[in-house]
Write a structure and sequence with these properties.
The termini are far apart. Strand 4, helix 4 and strand 5 form a beta-alpha-beta unit. The strands form 4 sheets. The protein has a 5-stranded mixed beta sheet, with helices on both faces. A 4-stranded mixed beta sheet has the order 8-13-12-11, with helices on both faces. The protein has one domain: Thiolase/Chalcone synthase (Peroxisomal Thiolase, Chain A, domain 1, 3-Layer(aba) Sandwich), CATH 3.40.47.10. The protein is 38% helix and 21% strand. By secondary structure, the protein is of the alpha/beta class. It is built from 12 helices and 13 strands. The mean pLDDT is 95. The structure holds acetyl coenzyme *A.
Length: 375
């Protein structure tokens, strides 16, 4: 049976840093002390005006392709996990497919709240294990700053923007050992953006009432999250044929330091096995786990044959966990020639993508002027 293995990784965060003090200075009734003590967050990155989810996703994905030394034409499927797509349609994955020139790839979005990225890993690995795909690009990207009410101190301080990507590739050795996916839709109202869908299309009233913003019952989500991380993690560790003491690195969804610490204590995983970067990015939703994994790799926290546990939770309610056995020798060094080839390749790719769009427009006008006979 073919297995799925991580072959490439990449992350991207916007350059604009907003600290807790900035938020207080902007007039929000909060303080660095409160945010740090209750969440562990010190600062977050926010997308620039006009910077959308696909812009972040493309940059993270390009880095993952570089690390794996994979050509865009070799990708069979792109899965973008996001709850803040560029548009309701088309899928953000389709925009990424075009921008990367992955001309042989299918493209689909997954929305499972903050667990979407882990769902995407599970779905991507299953495509490879069933023999339907050899390389799947899995991306978690969100610009939640567009959907938070910057007057609501109980939500806006929590989130940041970012993207992370993994390239999953067919392998003879097991890499993604097991993935648990879970949901409980009875908790849908605990974390919701009420307007903008078919239930409550956006209009003047919904905007006036702020119903296009994220609403959250923080305390209930908090209580549920500490329990579900433990349950999902234990189930996944066991299904992977392991015990908690065989886990070398634990990367939980980076939402709140108190949730993370309570969950790792319940799992009996000490501080050396835990990776946390929440203080610098806040909760980047679907990007939180891949960004943390990229940073753990860069900091030398990942070694070949390590067992890495990733666990997420979020809106839905949804949760997911996976155990990866790391198979890539580290560090990966990109030679100057490979960097140069990639850079020029990207420029050519962007020219080709723009030519394709022009060709679509030209065809549209041609067919309006010279309509084909209908059958
Ligand atoms: N600054 C100052 N005071 C604040 C702030 C703030 N930013 N936010 C809330 N407060 C106040 C409240 O108004 C309240 O004041 P009151 O007692 O006068 O009414 C007081 O602080 C306590 O509020 P609580 O809600 O009880 O604070 P709590 O300790 O529960 O922390 C928090 C709130 C941080 C939101 C916490 O509940 C939490 O992290 N929940 C989980 C959220 C989460 O993980 N969500 C994401 C999951 S899914 C996804 O990633 C999309």
């Amino acid at each position: 049976m073919p297995y799925a293995q991580v072959a490439g990784w990449g992350m991207y965060v916007p350059s604009r840093v907003v600290t807790n003090d900035h938020l207080a200075q902007m007039g929000l009734d909060t303080s660095d002390e409160w945010i740090t003590a209750r969440t562990g967050i010190k600062e977050r990155r926010l997308a620039a005006q006009g910077e959308a989810t696909s812009d972040l996703a493309v940059k993270a994905a390009q880095r993952a392709l570089d690390v794996a030394n994979a050509r865009p034409s070799e990708i069979d499927l792109i899965i973008v996990a996001t709850c803040t797509p560029d548009h309701l349609m088309p899928a953000t994955a389709a925009l990424v497919q075009d921008r990367l020139s992955c001309n042989n790839a299918g493209a689909v979005d997954v929305n499972a709240g903050c667990s979407g990225f882990m769902y995407a890993i599970g779905l991507g690995a299953a495509q490879i294990e069933s023999g339907r795909a050899r390389r799947v690009l899995v991306i978690g990207a969100d610009v939640l700053s567009s959907y938070v009410d910057w007057q609501d101190r109980s939500t806006c301080v929590l989130f940041g923007d970012g993207a992370g990507a993994l390239l999953l590739q067919v392998s003879e050795e097991p890499g993604i050992l097991f993935t648990t996916l879970g949901s409980d839709g009875s908790g849908a109202g605990l974390l919701v953006i009420p307007a903008g869908g078919s239930r409550l299309p956006s209009n003047g009233n919904t905007v006036r009432n702020g119903e296009h913003y994220l609403k959250m019952n923080g305390q209930q989500v908090f209580r549920w999250a500490t329990q579900i991380i433990e349950r999902a993690s234990i189930k996944t560790i066991r299904a992977s044929g392991l015990t908690p003491d065989r886990i070398d690195l634990f990367i939980p969804h980076q939402a709140n330091l108190r949730i993370i610490e309570a969950a790792s204590k319940r799992l009996g995983l000490n501080e050396e096995k835990l990776f946390v970067n929440l203080s610098r990015y806040g909760n980047t939703t679907n990007a939180s786990i891949p960004i943390a994994l990229c940073e753990a790799i860069a900091m030398g926290r990942v070694r070949p044959d390590d067992h890495i546990l990733l666990t997420s939770f979020g809106s839905g309610l949804s949760w997911a966990a996976t155990v990866i056995r790391w198979g890539v020798p580290l560090p990966v060094r990109l030679s100057p020639w490979r960097r140069f080839r990639r850079r020029t390749g990207r420029q050519w790719t962007s020219v080709r993508s723009s030519l394709r769009r022009q060709r679509q427009k030209a065809r549209f006008w041609w067919e309006r002027i010279f309509p084909r006979n209908s059958v």
